[in-house]
Amino acid sequence: MSATSRPRPTRSPWAELRNSRIHGRGLYASKAIPAGTRIIEYRGERITKAESDRREERRRARARRGDGGCVYIFEINQRHDLDGSMAWNTARLINHSCEANCESSKIRGRIWIVALRDIAEGEELSFDYGFGLENWREHPCRCGTAKCAGYIVTKTQRWRVRKILTKARVAARKSQAAAS
Ligand SMILES: C[S@@+](CC[C@H](N)C(=O)[O-])C[C@H]1O[C@@H](n2cnc3c(N)ncnc32)[C@H](O)[C@@H]1O
Ligand SMILES: [Zn+2]
User: Is residue 171 part of a domain?
Assistant: First the structure.
């Protein structure tokens, strides 16, 4: 490969790129997708957790400066992550939803985005980013679904976020009532 050539963007026969109603650009079903279909592989650079932590710190610093805070790092296992920020990794454009139609699935050491249900042509593809509770306030969710927790947090932890937000709302209402 010459110094100027770049890897070609990964492609899927099932998906196409469009502007997203959730955030920036997203991937959309280019035709009806049956449940269980492997839609596209999430590719990138395999890095250690230590390197991943360094990159995450740099990303957070950029986000604080308002200079792009997108998260592209994917957990592979307890020792390694996958940095999918490269422009040629088309799967990096799939947004998170609290009512996702896809899931990420590890298949023989590779990460695939797989349809969780039948998906109609034109639907935006989404999966649960699987974010834990660390720094959850830094990741507001705009998926717009009825089940949206307001923040990008993995399904099993969303009840905790809802509980904290409800508690804060009740406290704010009480202090408003006391002041009036
Ligand atoms: C891997 S990128 C997804 C592609 C992104 N839409 C783009 O145009 O680059 C991940 C970033 O997209 C944004 N994002 C993804 N899903 C979101 C959602 N449900 N609500 C708000 N922002 C979202 C967040 O900034 C997140 O860090
Ligand atoms: Zn949401």
Answer: yes
Is position 47 within any domain?
no
Tell how far the Cα of 65 is from the centroid of ligand 1, in angstroms: 17
Q: Which atom of ligand 1 is nearest to the CA of 143?
A: 19
Distance (Å, rounded) from C-alpha 88 to C-alpha 1?
15
95 lines ligand 1 (CB under 6 A): yes
pLDDT of residue 108: 87
Q: What pLDDT score does 1 carry? A: 44
pLDDT at residue 4, as a whole number: 58
In the chain, the number of structural domains is 1
**What range does the domain containing 169 cover?**
136-180
What single string gives the DSSP state of each residue in 63-95?
HHTTS-----EEE-SSSEEEE--STT-GGGGPE
Q: Locate 121 and state its tokens.
A: 């042509």
Residue 51 belongs to a domain:
no
Query: Is residue 104 lining ligand 1, measured as CB closer than 6 Å?
Result: no
Enumerate residues 6+ apart whose C-beta is below 8 A from 62: 68, 69
Which position has the higher pLDDT, 76 or 2?
Answer: 76
In a domain, 32, yes or no: no
CB atoms inside a 10 Å sphere around CB 155: 13
Check if 89 has its Cβ closer than 6 Å to any atom of ligand 1: no
